[in-house]
Amino acid sequence: MVQFDNVAVRYGYGPEILQDVSFSLPAGSFHFLTGSSGAGKSSLLRLMYLAQRQSRGRIVLFGRDIATSRRYELPALRRRVGVVFQDFRLLDHLSAMDNVALPLRVAGASENDIRKFVPDLLTWVGLADHLHAKPPTLSGGQKQRVAIARAVIGRPDLLLADEPTGNVDDHIAMRLMYLFEELNKLGTTVMVATHNENLVSRLPYPQLHLENGQMRRG
Amino acid sequence: MFSRHSDLPLEKDATSRFLPWLVAPMVFLCAVALAGVFILSGLIGRWDRDVSGTLTVEIAAASGDARESAERTRERVDQAVALLNGFPGVANARALTQDQLVALLAPWLGNSELLRELPLPALIDVTTRAESPPDLIALTAKLAQTVEGASLDDHRVWLSRLIRLSRSIEWLAIAIVMLIGGVTSATVFYATRTGMAIHQEVIEVLHLIGAPDDYIARQFADRAFVLALKGGVVGLALTVPVLMLIGMTARRLEGGFLAELSLPILGWLSVLVLPAVAALLAMLTARMAVHRTLARLL
Ligand SMILES: Nc1ncnc2c1ncn2[C@@H]1O[C@H](COP(=O)(O)OP(=O)(O)O)[C@@H](O)[C@H]1O
Ligand SMILES: [Mg+2]
């Protein structure tokens, strides 16, 4: 599903934030990505959701070498990846429903399908009463659930979550993790970046740990 | 096209709201220039018909006593006929005989015996090729240079000059129309870029969610289309009364070539489609601007 070989990242002419990172995510796997703040977790995820290019090394996503793919082929790959951004990145001028509908619209789904699936999913994440609310009127936890709904509405093959439990208490964090587990059971490959050791220790999934630009298996 | 879904809050952009106010005067100017082109080409067509067909070259009688004069005039006539027959666009040049000349003048001057004594100018009848008429201005110059006392029909030459001038003005008007299109397009281009900068975050999210470039470009293009169409319709609303006024004034003047100052059907049509053309131009430009900007992203 995802294969990294000796991948490095640097910003501008700065030092390499990641060096010789090699790992693979088998289809249907669930991994934690751990490391202290500034270790490069977000950078690694950005490579995976094609927001950024590696400065060297090889990345193969869904069997496609990213470096040799044509630019117009990338949107289709991105649509197979669901992302829960660290800062949610909801569109403030759109309702919760329209935010969640975005991946479907972008993929060219009919408005009929959108009206059928989106309210169901929002109900499932407990936002049945907030379908038409705009993000600025939602609490942090509610925004997070909208963000997660948006990430999973398109039934992605790969789900990436960047510190999705960053600003909620442990109780809610565990509920979110169960949600990801459910998706994983349905076949989605999951990677959750977090520095919440407590969370990682309570779940039986392998972790990939970033430290000093290197990756090691924990 | 108007009800298509848009994820970008483009309606609230201050930068794009000025677009109709740019397009309206542009469409107005364009319409006036276009009307000018059509009216001019109508005039040119008519004048062209006037200068084609036959024309007359006059050879002034040479000085000297009657015999000497007649002989030298004849030489000049032969020279002119030879030149004319060799000139591109001339089908046939033929000197009028003395009898024909006298017959021509008799209705005015009466006594034909007396006429024969006078040093009459000679006349040459020139038939021109309808499909490729001669360059009268060049011909005049050539005649004046080679044959003493030769002159071409003044009115025709003057008309030729007028046609030449009008053609230049016509090209100028076409250049102005294109320039207006270019300026409008450039403005839409930069307005679109500004709009993209304003909505950078939304665009980035759409991009990361997997929107193809055209999904984003289309939203800007649709918006530009609607705004330019609005402006174009306003511009057209300003133009129509102005053109009708010009047409009415021309008709009241009647006579002369001013009668041709009203716009032909094709002219009206091309003026009427200007708002749509402006809207399409704005749409294509906005689309291109977005594609070019997005091409810099991964
Ligand atoms: N856009 C950027 N430009 C320059 N440096 C960056 C950029 N993004 C991240 N970095 C740097 O890269 C390092 C890793 O950042 P990040 O990937 O966000 O780590 P984490 O998500 O683990 O906190 C940090 O030192 C950060 O300052
Ligand atoms: Mg981070």
Automatic annotation (TrEMBL), chain B:
Protein name, per record: Cell division protein
Organism: Telmatospirillum siberiense
Example GO biological process: cell division
Subcellular localization, as worded in the UniProt entry: Cell membrane
InterPro entries documented for this protein: ABC3_permease_C, FtsX
Occurrences of domain ABC3 transporter permease C-terminal (ranges): 176-287
A Pfam family this chain is assigned to: FtsX
Membrane-spanning segments: 21-44, 171-191, 224-246, 266-286
